[in-house]
Design a protein that fits this description.
It is a single chain. The chain is mainly beta. The protein has one domain: SH3 type barrels, CATH 2.30.30.50. About 0% of the residues lie in helices and about 35% in strands. It has a five-stranded antiparallel sheet with strand order 4-3-2-1-5, with no helix packed on it. A hairpin with a 1-residue loop joins strand 3 and strand 4. The mean pLDDT is about 80.
Length: about 80
């Protein structure tokens, strides 16, 4: 994806071979831009519905429709 295509609340999938170890996971964009006191855009903050948030660069994300999620996938708020 490109920076201009990202928006909060968007459903995304992380590329399968991403070096974060979370490749292939689905999540939702929480915020886009600058984090940890750095003055340049570094990525999108992604909620993968686990007790952590990930910062992933836009090139490693693809937009997905909720309808296209794998069978058995669902959101759960605890």
């Amino acid at each position: 994806m490109k920076w201009e295509e990202l928006k909060p609340g968007q459903s995304v999938r992380i590329d399968e071979n991403h070096n974060s170890g979370f490749g292939g996971r689905y999540g939702r964009v929480v915020a886009i831009g600058t984090f940890i006191g750095i003055s340049e855009r570094i990525g999108a903050l992604i909620d993968i519905h686990e007790p952590l948030l990930l910062i992933i660069e836009p090139e490693a994300l693809e937009e997905v429709d909720l309808e296209s999620l794998q069978p058995g996938w669902e959101e759960v708020d605890l």
